[in-house]
């Protein structure tokens, strides 16, 4: 069923979010808020070395300390193999088990080695000091290009590069090579009048969520386990824990807490399997909470990258060929988002000849995790920088150049898909027409633009809708609410039922209370879980019509549902939702609607950003003066939350562009594992971020939803860098554009000009 936009009464409005009061009053429970009687406190011993062989672990002194109830190491974990579906990607269980607790080697500063459960946090911390670990320190490698060299320190003796035929006989740090594209790039470059080729680099950055990882776990004597935790998917936590520990999935119940940010970084496990092991060994509940330093040192940042991009065009502005090589740092174990970078970076353009090669490379850093549109911001930084330089070389307006070559309906993407209805050109048109783009700039001020793309995904979702006796509606679904999805679920259900959104109460169920739902990630929830909620609501409406027909003694085909009530031509007064619900016990019992789907047809999202900066030439400091994000949302269910997602992505992207980076010592130890030294933007660093929501409906969704959470972080890196160039004439090919780095580039530019 589809719903006509002009007749919508709830979708597209801005009601107060259902969980808002609990969150602003402090009633909402997050990961570290849960406690249990008899609970123990868990702590983890972490490696001080970037790379070392473990020659022995002696836990006897720690076990003997009064108050210590359990100690576990990697030797206590069952041997894992195969892979697990984590919604957005597959996870190698063997690698995951070795990341949760090191086995024979530690591979990064902060790698977990052993864990303790004690009657107090103080005792647990003291006990960690009593664990004696023997190390054989090994050479380490942090830089992705250095890691690819034949003589680089080797992390895994048994890793042979996938994607090369025949498979190499010599192990290396290159986990995988991938190549995508079509056409003849050599012929395309031969036809180009102008060719720009550049190498660009980005540093590893963290998702920076405010709430650290935390959980409480307990296993009873009959083997039934319960985990309370903050995550982006309680079903993923259940499945990973059960597979790592050799348990049945039905024996692990995961209850989701509220989540204080994730951005992709909470789609895997760190503490949860360890807490379960400690609980099983001690027969007591165990609570574990990371410090901020542990979050930075031991949970996934996103990849550092080294990228070569080459684009050619004719004098009239048509791109004839494009190629790229992306080298992405995976951290200690394979699994960087280089594949998504290859697929997404050139997607805003309608190309005839394109070739992209990607390398997934292990280094001695924490295993990377997803971070909003994983891989796309780095790739877009490289591509959009070269696109901007090419437009300048051709003396073309950068937006006009992008529009001339812009992807549209019928464009074949580099990864092989052919776009259906997309809003890329509409975003570019809105950019060109926006007052921001037409405004004047002052001295040392510059303006940059950049485009971005994200696939958006669908996946597995389930929802149940129950009609209460008073005519209110309960919506039960299984996705943690990060960006306001409770509100969007309630609004779509209210639209289907034809009632006020205040009559709908959305709830997030645990793993024992609803069928499987994939993670909250990939901009899938409002699209996929929203589709399940719509279908469950439509199921309930059909049942309401049948009940009304029974009450009226008419054929169900004669009943129409409209404005929250059943109508029929032979009766003057309609039967409201409350009227039918009150008689449910007499007409067949409780009224519920259900839907379990594997949603397909996610609509790709395109976006273009405008950024104005001012550069202090004496210090290299960059101030963001004005920022406007234009994005196709398909349909904004709750416009305020869509705008908030766009603004949040910009804020994170600006931090990535200007300040954020992991800084390591020569020994491979992280030197800035805290918000004081890891410089994320605060309110005073940013202007009010303007948003323009474009709505080109996705025909695969009943309300036209595309998904909005990933795309906003894709353009800012390039938009900021392009604006800095416009201000001072210096192309920054390495991020972040920190004041010392920019000042050095300005000084070098001056020296070269003299």
Tell me the CATH topology of the largest domain.
Aldehyde Oxidoreductase, domain 4
Widest beta sheet: strand line-up? 3-7-1-14-11-12-13
Tally of separate domains: 3
Count of DSSP strands: 28
Architecture (CATH level 2) name of the largest domain: 2-Layer Sandwich
User: How much of the polypeptide forms β-strand, as a percent range?
Assistant: 15-25%
**Cα-based radius of gyration, to the nearest Å:** 27 Å
| CATH class annotation of the largest domain | Alpha Beta
Specify the biggest β-sheet. Answer: 7 strands, mixed
- Helix/strand class: alpha+beta
The rough form would be described as globular
Q: Termini, distance in Å?
A: 68 Å
Structure annotation, total helices: 21
Work out the helicity level. 25-40%
Corresponding CATH superfamily of the largest domain: Aldehyde oxidase/xanthine dehydrogenase, molybdopterin binding domain
Note poorly predicted spans: none
Would you write up a description of this structure?
- The chain is of the alpha+beta class.
- It folds into 3 domains: 5-28 and 458-599, Aldehyde Oxidoreductase, domain 4; 34-138 and 210-261 and 266-298, Aldehyde oxidase/xanthine dehydrogenase, a/b hammerhead (Aldehyde Oxidoreductase, domain 3); 306-406 and 434-447 and 606-753, Aldehyde Oxidoreductase, domain 4.
- The protein has 21 helices and 28 strands.
- It has a 7-stranded mixed β-sheet with strand order 3-7-1-14-11-12-13. Strands 9-17-16-15-10 form a 5-stranded mixed β-sheet. Strands 18-26-27-28 form a 4-stranded mixed β-sheet, with helices on both faces.
- Helix 10 (338-344) packs parallel to helix 11 (376-393), helix 11 (376-393) packs parallel to helix 20 and helix 19 (639-658) crosses helix 20 (716-728).
- The longest helix has 28 residues, at 525-552.
